[in-house]
Fold these 3 entries.
Entry 1:
Amino acid sequence: MARAVDEEVDPGAPAPNDAPKRDAALSGRTRLALGAMQGLGLGGFYIIVLIYFSVSAPFFFSASNAVNILSNVSVIGIVTLGQAYVLIAGGFDLSVSGTVPLGGVIFTMLINRGTSIPEAWTIAVLAGCAIGLANGLIITRIGINALVTTLGTWSITVGLAYVVTNGETVAFNDLNQGPIDNVVLGMPLYVWTMILITVIAFAVLRFSVYGRMIYAIGGNREASRLAGIRVDLVTTSVYVISAGLSSFAGVMLAQQLLAGAPTVGANAALNSIAAVILGGAALTGGVGGIPGTVVGTLVLGTIANGMALMQVPSFYQQIATGAILLLAVGFGRLRAVFGQLAG
């Protein structure tokens, strides 16, 4: 009769079922470490920017200038929220540079024709959503690269803005239709509008099933598809959100300027992508968030404000934005390498 022989067991070895738990814990600690590194890096950089301009720029460190910075970033801040959704989902939206001015032009021309403000807002935003829908369908159904698709729609939307205005700035016939600068608790109404949209965007992305699907798709599209996520539908939806918010921002800008122009918002793509990447997103998708995006937007807005107070020409601000974008992408690459080594 065969006798059972007990196998030698290393008392220090983990049980087989503990390995996935250990790997998950390591992955969680790695993500926390990377997030903390990103937050500390961006926060430290912002503090340096604030200290520098407080010393170098006259009247920079004041409550009135803080409100001025928030006012200046309110429009591009709304654009960056939509851009964040697209980038986290693994996409790319250059068409915002055309959607912003087109939204403002549509709104202005509708107002001049006697359309009520709510109706003009609605039509302009729906026009933006239609652009986003076109982007999403071309990318998901036809299979054209997001960069090429949104570059093409950017050219089309800018061209449309020039066509309908004959290349000229269209001012409001009734100047009372424009201002939205009513002050509430010390800040203009459009700043509070940006804050409200930011809170909604954060809550949706952080706490909803839809938000988790966006992160999943950005992390691994094929795995998301196999998990039952309707990848094409969610991908299309983030482009609709991005374009809708961009058109909304264009309307806000038109009401601030009392005019619509095809040249207004031409830098929206560069500035929004730079802000989102600076805030911790990755061009590969699956990474990023609204808080980092907001801080990235504030960093760019603060630098622009400080340079303006120092009377630095605006084209140097473009150079600074491009340099910051390159630094942010480089830092993101280092973070990814660190994550691979730590994981």
Entry 2:
Amino acid sequence: MAGWRNKDVLVLGAVLVLVVLTGCGGSGDTSGDEPTTTADESPAAVDAAALEGATYESTSVEGHDLVEGSTIHLAFEDDTMSVSAGCNTIFGPYAVTDGTLAWTGPPASSMIACSPEADEQDRWLTDLLANGMEGTGDGSTLTLADGTVTIQLASTSAPPLDTLLGRTWTVVGTIADGATARLPVNTRRPWLTVGRDGLSRLFTGCNSGRTTVRVVDDQIAFGPATVTRGRCQGAARLNEEAVLAVVDDQTTDHVEFIGEMLIVTVGDKGLVFQIR
């Protein structure tokens, strides 16, 4: 029995030595493989150049409960920011100053009749961007925050332009020299009723007529407009001039289609349409 105990002691001692040597060797072998930790990089502040031509859709909102089934959409085109959250589309000139995104003046709206909850959400969203929100992102994502509300958005693509055919386009705003403006009050809204074949009926806000609408690559080509020659005065004449400057034998330079809102520009002139 004593012989077996001595053998056990020797085996146990050998095992302990092996464990110690293995532990030491392992420590020395892995010292160079320890991960190097670096400080997390802060997300980059956005600027207007990075946002130009981009469209985004919200993926999450913290600090506010959106109306059920609604999503926030943002689009940026030709110094105009368009925003929608399930009802009206609000649009106007914007700027990014030291990373803060905000409208530079009172925005216009498509003025659709909405539910009280959707109306309130439109006002909430308008106030957020009128006061300004800090924007960060990498192009594929955009985060807007004001200390209380944080909106996470992801880049998305606009629907194909040919989905605009077969629908009615109502003018709700004009663009001149980069400035977006509402239509004058107490005037009739111009419109285009666009057939699926592109043949279109036109109302300029004063006179009626016809034109054609074609989608060419990523732009819209309007044919020569034929309209009645009724005398237009005051704001109605200004509306007609703004409409014909875009839809009379012109091809757009830029097109932005977000939600039910279409913004088209030709040179320094443009129109904002509500699509039905």
Entry 3:
Amino acid sequence: MNALLGTEEVQELGRRLDAVRREVRRVFLGSASAVDTLLVALLARGHVLLEGVPGVAKTTLAKAFAHSLGSTLRRIQFTPDLLPADITGTYVLDPRTGSFSLRQGPVFSHVVLADEVNRAPAKTQSALLEAMQEGQATIEGESQPLPQPFLVLATQNPVDLEGTYPLPEAQLDRFLVRLVLGYPDERAEVDMLRAHGETPPECNVVLDPASILELQRVTRHVHAEAEVLEYAVALCRHTRLSTRVVLGASPRASLALLQAGKAHAVLDGRPFAMPDDLRAVAAAVLAHRLILVPDLEGDETARQKVIEEALAKVPYSAAAK
């Protein structure tokens, strides 16, 4: 166990995260696991690729989550004519002083909702990629630091793909997790209809940016035994051997899997990660990083089968050898 962390300390943080869950669930009537996936990304300082057909409350989830964190939220609607400066901002001339001043773009926010990110051309996507990877935006050759914490929730519509620019593999790899929002179950949909027309509930603020940074610090110091590290590598290596895959999970994926596993341990109130933590987040972390053989390209079921096979065939004991 990491000497820097105590069980009571992490359990207290876990209770605060439970409060975030409760607040978001008052507004978002979809899957409870979706909120946990967002929390994993937040704790691990990662970003989220949100996928789902229109009308499954992707924006509602993002807004409720950001509000519960006491953080600013800016929404960017990606379109084919969107320019990098529309995201990062630009210098504008002040006619009163004759000098240029920086007008910050929507990327200067704690939480950025990038709607239909695959509709923008590659040059615009790269501006968002720099923000995600470096925590900064380059404007007129000058680098400007972004607010911390910084979380991107990028959505893709899996149905209407005409006129889109698919995200390159290098950019997909920058998303810590992919969250697929399906249709709600029958009871949740009935509850949604019952609540329609009434004043929607608002999330109470549970955390603040300083608290989130402390949570992220704790997550980085969660202890992981050698067996856990080796299990993460073994799972990723197994995906590279699958006959369904052209390009398996990269070493960056191994690191992402470990980070997400540590975050899952914090959610569970533990200062140490276990193989079960990696198993719980494996599908969300690894599936979108796989490049399948041409015959299976776009087959979501095949992606899931690759992960399921890795989880079934790589025993915990084998990871420690």
